[in-house]
Amino acid sequence: MLITKDILVEHQAFIDRDNEFQREARLRQALWRERRGLPIGLHKGKPLGSRLAMPFAQGTLANYLTENIKSVVRAEVQRTEKLYRAPRIYDDLLSSQPLCFNLFGELHLDLDLATAVFRHLLGENLRVTGIEFEHSPGRGERRFTHDGSALDVFVKYDFNGGAGFVGVEVKYVEDLERDEARHRKRYDELTGQMGIFEPSALSQLRVRPLEQFWRDHLLVGSMLLDQESGFERGMFAVLYPRGNTVIESAVTRYRSCLLDASTFTSWTLEQVLDAVDQAGAGSWATEVRRRYLGS
User: Fold this and answer.
1) The pTM is what?
2) Distance set, CA 141 to CA 80, 145, 147, 238 (Å)
């Protein structure tokens, strides 16, 4: 379908600053909401098709696809150590945080299914032992990154040599244009200790669009360097839909900044959903694909 301004305005999904992929995704979410008869929410006092009305969205958790997923969200938002942004986690249909739950919530509850998925994604014999959301091993602790960084999804697994993990940064429509975090001396210390970054690329890593990837990767590295973590292996992964070429380009640039990419990988949302399908997931995976990819 040709997405014109008139179509976007008709479905109250026109935002002037959106790029091509964001326009397509915003319209897709507006149509998803309309098909379900869900009440429209507001942005800056005006109706926006990709938002749900509050407090309806919080009370019903209509942003989430199954009752199982809703139960995970209810449990998570009660955890005071987690930093979930309200009302965005409830009303924003484009937010990557609800996508995290819609994609991984059922896997959190079914570790056998999660094991099959990650065996496919990582290409090895492993056993998933847990999936957490908005995970930090210790916010603000100096032995890690000495800041508030957290991983969107944290997958723990056992393998023949011990324990491993994958820390996942999930993106949907983001363009990586948000301001950089305040630089900390600990970042430079970890960069040197990890020894995987191209020295000439450090100036690129400290600024957008790569800065967030770098800080998340440093958090993963700090966990591997920490003798009390208990992990023999760890990896940082960026997950994004194939159509988001801004993230795709940033991932390519980020990989070029690495001397050793053994602790870094990327997956498209399509690849992960293919792995979920091959593992024998139920209809919820089909609904995730339809809602977020339109296929």
Assistant:
1) 0.97
2) 17, 7, 7, 24
Structure tokens at 292: 């977020």
Break the chain into its structural domains and give their ranges: 102-293
Q: What would the pLDDT profile of 109-118 be if each residue is shown by its tens digit?
A: 999 999 999 9
Q: 271 and 121 in contact (C-beta within 8 Å)?
A: yes
According to DSSP H, which parts of the chain are helical?
A: 5-10, 20-35, 56-60, 67-77, 88-91, 96-109, 111-122, 185-194, 202-205, 211-225, 245-256, 269-278, 283-293
Q: Is 190 helix (H, G, I), strand (E, B) or coil?
A: helix
Residues 6+ apart with CB under 8 A from 204: 210, 253, 257
Tally of CB atoms within 10 A around 36: 9
Q: What is the pLDDT of residues 12-65, one digit of tens each?
A: 999 999 999 999 999 999 999 999 999 999 999 999 999 999 999 999 999 999
Nearest to 282 by CA among 35, 130, 66: 66
Burial (CB count <10 Å: 0-12, 13-18, 19+), residue 111:
middle
| Euclidean distance between CA atoms 53 and 219, whole angstroms | 36
**Lookup result for tokens 């407090």:** 55
Total count of residues recorded for the chain: 295
| Burial class of residue 259 (count of CB atoms within 10 Å of its CB; 0-12, 13-18, 19+) | exposed
DSSP 53: P
